Amino acid sequence: MFTAKLAVVMPVYNEGQIIAHVIDKWTRELLRLGIDFEIHAYNDGSKDNTLFILTELTNQNQHLNIHNKKNSGHGPTLVQAYRENSDCEWIFQIDSDDEIGTEGFEELWRNRGPFDFLIGRRTRQDQPWIRRLVSSVSRVTVRTLYGDRVDDVNSPYRLMKTSIFKKLFFALPDDMFAPNVVISGAVSRMKIPIYEIPVRQHPRSSGEVSIKKLKLLKAVVKSLYQTFVFRFKLAGVLHKSAAL
User: Fold this and answer.
1) Less packed terminus of the chain by CB within 10 Å, N or C?
2) The domain containing residue 63 runs over which residues?
3) Residue 160 lies in a domain
């Protein structure tokens, strides 16, 4: 069975206004770079016309694959996407809201040789207070439990060598609220080679945030608990395979 060298995984929820633009932009950039790639859009139970648009796009874009699923949230969708694409050599995760563009990807891809984890550190300064709080709490938690080698621990702009992370992907709980936070922690704990660059984050121009303020605060508590528990599970994962 044919497997692309790079799998771009993209959780999608109610992004009908912008998803065609986002898919087209990333397709053109990856073609320009001459990469053997597939884009995997995971429609997380969107209630608008997102699925219809994605389906129409597959008639024009041979690189696009649609995974339609019941709504489970951003985190569990990522866990599923990582597992289902772990046979590709590389996985790149990007969100579908177009807050971070294609500009930084070439540098990550060009420098992947000696690195197994390459990440964009978001530089936007005008984040809503609730998002800043979540980011700060996540960063402190990861630094305390795992180490401080990754600054933007929940960045949705990450290139990962799957042979290094595959066992970790399958060890994550199915309902993990913030798998990227735990993955960043594991990178620190395992001393995986890191390459980090700043990437510009723009304000959301369309669509909707999939989780509201009160629910987000409750979810943060769940995320902190999961991050704490997984810290001790990680030791078992490392024991099974020194290279993960």
Assistant:
1) N
2) 6-240
3) yes
Whether residue 125 is predicted with pLDDT greater than 70 in this model: the reply is: no
> What's 122's domain CATH number?
3.90.550.10
Domain tally for the chain?
1
Tell whether 99 is covered by a domain.
yes
The percent of residues in the chain predicted with pLDDT above 90, rounded, is 74
Q: How far apart are CA 230 and CA 244, in angstroms?
A: 15
For residue 205, pLDDT over 80 is answered with no
Residue 51, phi then psi, degrees to nearest 5: -60, -40
Is residue 1 a part of any domain in this protein?
no
pLDDT tens-place string over residues 176-198: 999 999 999 999 999 999 999 99
Q: Taking residues 140-152, what's their average pLDDT?
A: 92
Dist CA 237 CA 241 (whole Å): 7
- The C-alpha atoms of residue 57 and residue 165 are separated, in whole angstroms, by 30
For residue 197, is it within any domain?
yes
| CA–CA distance, 32 with 26 (Å, rounded to integer) | 10
CB-count burial class (<10 Å; 0-12, 13-18, 19+) for 5: exposed
